[in-house]
Each structure stands twice: as structure tokens, then as C-alpha cells.
Design goal:
The complex is a heterotrimer of chains A (about 160), B (about 130) and C (about 375). Chain A is of the alpha+beta class. Chain A contains five helices and five strands. Chain A is about 40% helix and about 15% strand. Chain A has a three-stranded antiparallel sheet with strand order 2-3-5, with no helix packed on it. A two-stranded antiparallel sheet of chain A has the order 1-4. Chain C contains twelve helices and eight strands. In chain C, a hairpin with a 6-residue loop joins strand 7 and strand 8. The chains are: A alpha+beta (about 160), B alpha/beta (about 130), C alpha+beta (about 375).
Chain lengths: ~160, ~130, ~375
């Protein structure tokens, strides 16, 4: 047992440089793997909603009707799950944390007007094709199972 | 035992041929104190008590005991109408687990040595896990 | 004149907010003058109902919720949950997964124990020692940030394997970090174990006999400081069966013994990390997961704070029936109440700290 065990370290601390970074003046460099915040490249996003279904904190909302992908960055827990489940890999984890804010903001990513036009065109084509197939099926044999199948497909596409 | 088996089939317990990975013994609720007393005499310690909702108004309560690295479990099946007897007279440390089961599942537990009267967990709605 | 005054009994509420407590726990202390004659614990200030969430989340996604129960024991919670599910589904993970999980679990134990030492130094008023241990902890956190991308919540586990692999360069960095830490920790830990000021606060305070500790169901360093040799890592889950280590036991059962056990475990963890890196096998880090779990299992692992149980009951769908997590603090509270009885009021704060309470995971 002794006293002043720590004196040597205390003196060393007194004359050595601080262990902390001079933060705002010298920006912090984050590790490559650091999970900071989620960004979405909306030009590649297909609004499938997979990220919304897997999000543990329900921070992501995807709306096909409004052509939007929303995230509440202050609810996000940075688990990287949405990035892993994304089928087209348009989501990415950026290694800088969410910027602080005075209120809980929502980030909205909306399709550009060209993208909306292309998407509407595509859906119209799908609807036409389904209608045609349905009409053909109805003409051939009025089987209730087929029509049910067709209507289900129709719903999932809209 | 027969009554217990009936309770098992009602709940959404694992279906089909599920092998038993844990050492669990199902006992009727009224045999609980006898069995726990026997286990206590053999110098097992109480590890945990856990309730599981298996169907509407059917709950399993799992008692885990340990001795060194060996573990074993007792299981009873109860509903809200039953009063489960507390094992705090045998294992004094069971009061936290029993109060938790009462607060989260709304299962009445009789004769606890420390009864928090539903105030152990400060939940927004009463009995949220029930 | 003899002291024949009637001793006054008063009740002092301790917590939920107290300078020494990082998290809210409440104790009603019944005092006779300065001596505590009874204590009644009360928890439940931060109950969030995370266990209920298992009924609404896919069992593969739930590991992310499970490990967010608490910041410090985070990796262990995820590990316990995936162990239980893997056992139900008969998944045998690859050797590399096992070694990496063991390595991260030990790094987690290191940062937990360093944090605890800092809080202890803060509790007995040794501010510069507190700063020093937290500076050392930061080095461990940097290694974790490098390998997993999170400082305290790693999010690397998944059912059947890992989400991220570790490169050779990272392993070398960890190895170098261990060498530096072993050297730098020595000054701080020698102060804890050898300084007279520190010893005067901890020696003989809050004694618990091994028989009582066993009877009250205590676990972890709290139990081992009372002289009971029980460490669930000896069961050999993950890669622990292939590593060389001996559980650390102390026989005094007081606050000093608990501090000693944790300090020795800190060095033991560094050694285990080194062993893991030396034996690290190559190969894939995940096995495919098919179907849904059906059955029930209770996984047990040794968390930094003691033994933790993860009970999983599955019903053959992708949503589980029940996930239950019994954390070490939950079973240490009766032991804590036992040690507090008969103590001085001024020592209560220190005793609460020496069980290393983690209230967030206690209440889930």
C-alpha cells in the first residue's frame, strides 16, 4: 500500500498534449465503416418499400402513390439493415453522423418530374397488359380463380 | 398432468415434432410449491421466472433453477382466474420476478413477501404484455 | 452520561437521480442514525417493452432490436439472441464467426470494465483517475469503431453468422492496440489496487459471504469476488472452449475484491483477444438460413456484468412468441440489498456501483 501512486501520471498529464481533439477547429475523421446516416440515390430507387418493412425503428416511409421516400433521421438507429436489404443498392451508409437540428426533421426524397412521367408510362402499360390478359381470359373460360389472380396482380402493381 | 396437457394443445406452442432442447418438466399449478420445496432442499438456486402468453388468457410460467452449471426448469400453465402461489417463502429472491409477471401479464400472485402492488414497472397501460 | 437516547429511524430515498448513478434506480433506505437497517429496491423508470416487440419484427431483424436494449452490454444481447435462435434452427456457424464473435465479446468486456473503473473513481472522488480510465476506454472504442462501424452498438451479428468481416490489417491494429493498452492500463490499475486513499474507501465495505451470494442468485464479478468460481465462459460457447483461461476469483467479498476481480478480468480479456487473433481461422462468415424457427431454447452467456439468459420461444412462423432476457443486474439486486443492510449511508453509493448496475437492460 502506498500513497501518491498516481503522482507520476498526474505530472505527465500536466506537461503532455491533451488526449482530446480540438474538435470544431480540427474536423474529426470518421472510420470508413462508421455508421453515420442513410442517404438515398432516388434516381435509382424503385420504391419497393423493402427498407420500410425491415426498419427496426420505423424511421423510413415509402409512398408509391406520392413517389416519395421519407426518412426521419432522428429516429434512425443506424443499424445498416435497409442498406443490406435494398434490392437495387440505391441506399448507402455515409460515415458522418446526422447533422444536429433544432427540431425533428423529415428528409423527403421525391422522384423528379421525368422519373414520374416514366413511371406513370410504365404503370399505364402494365395496366393495359393486365386488362388485355383479363379480357382474353374472360373470353376463353370464365374461371373465377383466374380473375381473382389477375385482380391480385393488378393490385400489387398499383 | 392431464389438465396440463390440455392447456398445452390449446396454445400456439411449437407444432409438430419439435425436439426438447431444454430440460423442462410440466407440472400442474397446485403442485408448484411442493416441487419447488424439493428443489430447494437439493440446494438449487433460483435463476429466473418468466411468463409467456401462449393464447388468449393462457400463460406459461417457466421457473429456472441452477446448480453449478446444471440447469433445470419447471413449467406451469395458468389463466387470469387462477391464483398462482408465490415461491418467495422458499426463495426470498423471487419477489422481483413475481412482481414483474404481475405487472406485465396481470397474473395474480398470492402471498409475496414484497408486494409492489403493480408499481414495480411504471407502464403507461396496465399489463401491457397480457 | 450514557447514550440512552432513542435512536431515530428515518427513511431516505436514494435515487432515481443521484450523482453516482448513471441510470435510474430507486432505493428506499431505512436509516437508524447513519446506519442502513433495511433497503427496498424499486426499478421500472425506463421500461420500454422491447420484449413485446418480438411479436412484430421478423426474427432475423429482431437481433438489431435485441442489441439495442442497452449500450454497454449490447454485443452480448445480440450474441445471446442469435445463439438461442441458431440452436433452435440447428445452425452450426463457421469457425471464423465463432472467433470473431468471441473477440468482439471480449473487447466489449474490456470497454465495460474500463468504464466501470472510471465510474468507481468518480464515485470516490478521484477525478483524474476517472479521466485516465475513460481515456483508455476510448482506445478500445476506436478499435471497435474501426472493425464494426459502431462505438458501442456493433450491429455485426445476424442469425447464422456475421454482417461484416474483419481484414488482416484490422486484426494487426487490434493486436498493436492490445500491446499499448496492457502497458498504459498498468498505471491506472496499480492506483486502484495499491493506493491508500482508494483502499480506505473499499476495504471491508459491503461484505457478502459466498453462501449468501450463492443463495441470493448473484452472478458475474459480484459472485466471483465472494469466492464462488463460476464463469459461464467455461461452458465453451462460441470459441471459448478452445481458448486458455481461468476464471478470476477473489475471496474477500468486499468492494475491493470486486474491483480486483474486474481489473484482473480486464487483463484476461486482453489476453483472450490476443489468443483469438492468433488462432483466427480463415473461411466464410455466414451459413445460409432456411425456414423459420420452431421450438424453444434458453441460451446463457457470460456478459461483462454476469450471466445473462436469453429465452426464445418460436412457433414456426417468422414472428417469435416470446423473447425474454434476464440480465445480470436483475439477479444481483437482491445481493445488493443484502450488502447495503448494516452499511453506513456514505458507502451506499459505492456499493450500488460495485454490482455494476445496468438498469436499461434490467428493465428492457
Amino acid at each position: 500500500m502506498s500513497t501518491l501512486n498516481y503522482l507520476g501520471q498526474s505530472l505527465k498529464n500536466l506537461f503532455s498534449r491533451p488526449a482530446t481533439e480540438n474538435y470544431p477547429a480540427k474536423p474529426h475523421i470518421y472510420e470508413e465503416r462508421y455508421r453515420g446516416h442513410i442517404e438515398n440515390d432516388i434516381s435509382r430507387c424503385i420504391l419497393c418499400g423493402n427498407c420500410m418493412r425491415h426498419c427496426p425503428s420505423s424511421a423510413i416511409t415509402v409512398s408509391k402513390a406520392e413517389y416519395t421516400w421519407r426518412i426521419r433521421p432522428f429516429s434512425c438507429v443506424q443499424c445498416n439493415e435497409c442498406v443490406e436489404v435494398c434490392p437495387v443498392k440505391c441506399l448507402s451508409m455515409v460515415n458522418a453522423p446526422t447533422k444536429p437540428g433544432t427540431q425533428k426533421s423529415i428528409i423527403v426524397n421525391r422522384y423528379s418530374s421525368e422519373q414520374i412521367a416514366v413511371e406513370q408510362e410504365r404503370q399505364k402499360a402494365i395496366a393495359e397488359r393486365i386488362a388485355k390478359a383479363k379480357a382474353a381470359a374472360a373470353a376463353k373460360s370464365p374461371n373465377p380463380a383466374d380473375t381473382a389472380q389477375a385482380s391480385k396482380e393488378n393490385k400489387s402493381c398499383v | 398432468m392431464t389438465e396440463n396437457a390440455g392447456g398445452e394443445s390449446k396454445g400456439n406452442t411449437p407444432q409438430g415434432n419439435v425436439e426438447n432442447l431444454m430440460d423442462i418438466r410440466d407440472i400442474p399449478a397446485e403442485r408448484l410449491l411442493d416441487e419447488v420445496t424439493k428443489i430447494h432442499f437439493d440446494e438449487w438456486r433460483l435463476v429466473q421466472i418468466c411468463a409467456t402468453k401462449i393464447a388468449e388468457n393462457r400463460y406459461e410460467i417457466l421457473y429456472t433453477f441452477g446448480k453449478g452449471y446444471d440447469w433445470k426448469n419447471l413449467r406451469i400453465t395458468v389463466s387470469h382466474e387462477d391464483k398462482v402461489s408465490s415461491i418467495t417463502s422458499i426463495y426470498e429472491v423471487a419477489y422481483l420476478y413475481e412482481n414483474e409477471i404481475h405487472d406485465l401479464f396481470g397474473i395474480e400472485i398470492d402471498m409475496m413477501n414484497y408486494d409492489f402492488r403493480g408499481k414495480l414497472f411504471r407502464t403507461g397501460v396496465p399489463h401491457p404484455f397480457a | 452520561m450514557a447514550d440512552n437516547s432513542i435512536k431515530k429511524i428515518s427513511i431516505v430515498p436514494f435515487g432515481p437521480q443521484h450523482p453516482v448513478l448513471p441510470e435510474p434506480i430507486h432505493l428506499d433506505l431505512v436509516l437508524q442514525d447513519e446506519k442502513v437497517i433495511d433497503a427496498l429496491p424499486s426499478i421500472g423508470f425506463v421500461h420500454r417493452g422491447l420484449e413485446k416487440l418480438v411479436e412484430k419484427r421478423d426474427f432475423q431483424d429482431f437481433v438489431l432490436v435485441a442489441e439495442r436494449t442497452c449500450g454497454i452490454c449490447s454485443f452480448g444481447h445480440g450474441l445471446g439472441y442469435v445463439e438461442a435462435v441458431e440452436k433452435i434452427m440447428h445452425l452450426e456457424t463457421t469457425p471464423r464467426t465463432k472467433y470473431l464473435r468471441t473477440m468482439w465479446a471480449e473487447l466489449g468486456r474490456m470497454h465495460n470494465h474500463l468504464m466501470w473503473l472510471g465510474l468507481l473513481a468518480d464515485a470516490f472522488g478521484f477525478e483524474s483517475l476517472f479521466m485516465e480510465t475513460w481515456r483508455l476506454r476510448e482506445k478500445v472504442l476506436d478499435l471497435l469503431e474501426l472493425t464494426t462501424g459502431g462505438r458501442v452498438i456493433f450491429s455485426v451479428n445476424k442469425v447464422g453468422g456475421l454482417r461484416k468481416d474483419v481484414t488482416k490489417g484490422m486484426l494487426d491494429t487490434i493486436m498493436a492496440g492490445m500491446t499499448v493498452l496492457t502497458k498504459e492500463c498498468r498505471v491506472a490499475t496499480d492506483t486502484f489496487l495499491g493506493d491508500r486513499d482508494v483502499q480506505s474507501r473499499m476495504r471491508g465495505v459491503g461484505r457478502l459471504s459466498p453462501e449468501r451470494a450463492e443463495e441470493l442468485g448473484c452472478c458475474g464479478p459480484f459472485l466471483r469476488a465472494s469466492g464462488v468460481r463460476r464463469d459461464l465462459r467455461l461452458l465453451g460457447y462460441e470459441a471459448y472452449g478452445e481458448l486458455q483461461f481461468e476464471p478470476i476469483v477473489s475471496f474477500d467479498g468486499d468492494c475491493y475484491a470486486r474491483c480486483e476481480v474486474r481489473i484482473k478480468e480486464l487483463y484476461q480479456s486482453m489476453d483472450l483477444v490476443r489468443q483469438c487473433i492468433e488462432k483466427m481461422p480463415d473461411g466464410p462468415i455466414e451459413v445460409p438460413v432456411k425456414g423459420n424457427p420452431n421450438g424453444e431454447y434458453m441460451a446463457r452467456i457470460e456478459q461483462p456484468r454476469g450471466e445473462a439468459l436469453y429465452y426464445v420461444k418460436a412457433n414456426g412462423t417468422k414472428f417469435l412468441t416470446r423473447y425474454r432476457n434476464r440480465t445480470p443486474t436483475y439477479s444481483n439486486i437482491p445481493g445488493l440489498v443484502e450488502t447495503i443492510k448494516g452499511a453506513e449511508l456514505a458507502d451506499v453509493a459505492m456499493m450500488i456501483l460495485t454490482i455494476d448496475p445496468c438498469i436499461s437492460c434490467t428493465e428492457r
